[in-house]
Design goal:
Keywords: 4Fe-4S, DNA damage, DNA repair, Hydrolase, Iron, Iron-sulfur, Metal-binding. Belongs to the uracil-DNA glycosylase (UDG) superfamily. Type 5 (UDGb) family. The protein is of the alpha/beta class and about 250 residues long. It has eight helices and seven strands, in the order ααβααβαβαββααββ. The longest helix is centred in the middle third of the chain and has 18 residues, at about 130-145. It is globular, with a radius of gyration of 17 Å.
Length: about 250
């Protein structure tokens, strides 16, 4: 574990200006704002990962939301997707509170870190393949810093899955061939030549499209989190009682 390295990485990510389209968009959103947040000073920069440097479970999303992370400066904070995710993390005992409103609201994650393969809010929530690839070295560096402790990763959505697999390979894990396909409930084990394997799990993204239509229910998300936490060796609540799952 290298907490100083992760802190420095977060600082460097927040200063990145590598993708002109994303820089222009995130800064335009921060200037014009949404009427409901007119009194906010938007973050308007790349959003670093969030969670302890000794995390055993990594949650990988897509990219910050224009009026969520791009406004608050913290992953999945201040938008409805984050409301769903952090409520579920709290329900299974992996977060200190069920809400994520702003970066100074006191929220803590227990053994969990949240990150994304693209750190800037993209127009229409759709980064280009080139932007994804340009941002990948940040994720690779984060994974390398987390390798001493991380034992499982829960990837939200097909885009995150496709973006994360090459990053896991570059960070030292072996991705099976053919590459495992994304699905809700997908599970693959990525061995490493010089350390513990990583359990990789797939979960539908916590987007409004998925949660409003019932494609991803709160129960499905809680179960995905409990399964991933168990593989990571973290205690997770289930059925109202604290327990550790090992499946």
């Amino acid at each position: 574990m290298d907490p100083g390295g992760l802190t420095e990485l977060d600082r460097r990510i927040a200063g990145c200006r590598a993708c002109p389209r994303l820089v222009a968009w995130r800064e335009e959103v921060a200037r014009t704002k949404r009427a409901a947040f007119a009194d906010w000073a938007y973050w308007g920069r790349p959003v670093p990962g969030f969670g302890p440097p000794d995390a055993r479970l990594l949650i990988v999303g897509l990219a910050p939301a224009a009026h969520g992370g791009n406004r608050t400066g913290r992953m999945f904070t201040g938008d409805r997707s984050g409301d769903v995710l952090y409520r579920a993390l709290y329900d299974v005992g992996l977060a200190s509170q069920p809400t994520a409103v702003h970066a100074g609201d006191g929220l803590e994650l227990y053994g969990v870190r949240v990150t994304s393969p693209v750190h800037c809010a993209p127009p229409a929530n759709k980064p280009t393949p080139g932007e994804r690839d340009t941002c990948r070295p940040w994720l690779v560096r984060e994974l390398r810093l987390l390798r001493p402790t991380v034992r499982a990763a829960l990837v939200l959505g097909a885009f995150g899955w496709q973006a994360a697999l090459p990053a896991f390979a570059e960070a030292g894990w072996t991705v099976p061939r053919p590459r495992p396909a994304f699905a809700h409930g997908a599970h693959a084990v990525l061995p490493a030549a010089d350390g513990p394997a990583l359990h990789l799990f797939g979960c539908f993204h916590v987007s409004q499209r998925n949660t409003f239509t019932g494609r991803l229910t709160p129960g499905m998300l809680r179960e995905a989190l409990r399964t991933a936490a168990g593989a990571a060796g973290l205690p997770a609540r289930g059925g109202g009682a604290a327990r550790t799952e090992t499946g």
